[in-house]
Amino acid sequence: MILADNETKVDLLNNEAIAKTIIELLRENPDRPVTIGVHGDWGAGKSSVLEMIESGFSGNHDVLCLKFNGWRFQGFEDAKIALIEGIVTGLVEKRPAMTKAAGALKDVFNRIDWLKVAKRAGGLAVTAFTGIPTPEQIAAIVGTLEAMFVDPGKLATKENLTSAIDGVKSMLKPAETKNVPEEVEAFRKAFDKLLKDAGIKQLIVLIDDLDRCLPDTAIETLEAIRLFVFTARTAFVVAADEAMIEYAVRKHFPDLPETTGPRDYARNYLEKLIQVPFRIPALGETETRIYVTLLLAGAEIGDEDSDYLKLIAAARERLKRPWENAGLDAATVKAALGTKADKANNALALSDQIGPILASGAKGNPRQIKRFLNTLLLRERTATARGFGADITLPVLAKLMLAERFIPRLFEQAAFVAAVHPKGICEDLETLERDLAADGASEKDEGEAITANARKGSKAVEAPTPASENAVLAEWKSSDTVCDWARVQPLLSGIDLRPYLFVTKDKKDYFGPVSVLGHLAGVVEKLFGGKMMVQSYEAELKLLVQAEADKVFEAVRTKIMGSGAFESMPAGVDGLILLVKAQPGLQSKLLDFLEVLPSSKCGPWAVRGWQGVIKDPECVRRLTMLLTEWSKLTNNLALKTASELALKDTKGVR
Questions:
Q1: Segment Disordered: which positions (predicted)?
Q2: Are the CB atoms for 190 and 132 separated by under 8 Å?
């Protein structure tokens, strides 16, 4: 069960409303030229909206709808010519019996040939406004080519040159030579006559994947569109991410000013071309939950199943007022699917479970959501294929993958601990879940007590003082994102996480080159010895490959942070310093470790020892910033003073 990531005419996002609005706008004034933009981030559903627009005009003989994918034509030839010729060729293919339009068709193709011959003759620069070369430009090319006959060795063959010159000269007959505005107007009139003779009341060109093109291709396509902007009965619908087009404008016109008045030039360029912009909104929590349910149910039941189509219809009703609804429920699914409702149970459970965090983490992007689900399903299949599928449940895997994707630091911290635990659990994670559950219960009890005391006129109950906890747990509890994730069902207390970590090895191996820590367990233990003893292990540490060094660092760091005692230097810090000295690639991880130390509890040791191993410029900057921050502390005089001295003596690390 893998979810296809292609444009579709089946609307699971309620984007049909956008497509219908665009169709109505195009039908209002078919004689009037218009350019419409369908904007949205990568994966927002722009291509699907174009599919719906094309489908909406199917069967209407008066309207000709053509699709042009700039990305697919990239690299074949000039994008302007490709678009112009593609439009005319598409017209001929879809209206083959155009006997009345034969003359107009020949005129248009002659003008296209004129442009193609001119380009082949010398790769001449076309004007930025129209894409049509001026007669003066072609005359210059002819003169250059004729002069080349003096040294034919520089050219391919004389025959080729003669053919090119004759072709260009044929474009410069005195009776036909016009200035640029006249040529533009002549092309538009010829194209307009072609549409009339072909019996086409409106031509709609759908431009897709423009934001995937290289900057030059994107701009050339937009310039070709400008050629048609004032041509009657012609409409363009351009699907593109505005940010990518603005980037293309800046790259293609590097010498232009950044702004023109109060507006950015790149934004002005796009807005002058796109007359009516539509932006596809990101999915909110309710839309995400419905989308996940529909995707998984469709994959299980079948996209074309009649009952599944009923479920889509029910979902669309919910999507009309998403602020009032909380997604699809079991009753709605049962009413739509009938006896097939059992196949959607997993879909409902997963959408309720992962919807809120997935909506926030994926920023409401449908493609990101679909990719997350595909990875989830593929990993479940992989576990089954490798023989430990019975040790994996989809809800637990989904919860861990939410952390892996959107809270990677939390995931790594828990993963490294669980990987070395004899039962594959992370005790700090279990403590977090337990404490959050207790806090929820105490808040409820406290609220009831406050209400009761208010009635009696007595003082409110004070919140209990939390017990001391290690730095990792404190870090997790201080993050709303981590706490929201920890509350997601199912809870992970008592669950062996090792099978789940093993199935995520496609990104990072938490088990090292051998099972669990293997020989690395001995390395970790050595780094907790005395300072003099630790120094003798430097040569051994240098032999570690990067993956092994990462694992050793995380094991040592986790053990240090788990001690919860920072007034004096914890065991293992000397080993951590030596490890980073032997493995300079760990400098960034060392800064991560220092930055989360509880500054109010740390002794002066936290300032010393790092300067000898932190040499990377970015890490030096981070360390200097951290010392500066510590030098301003008001609740830890010893650390404040030590940081001030370190900054004064060394002027930071250089």
A1: 438-461
A2: no
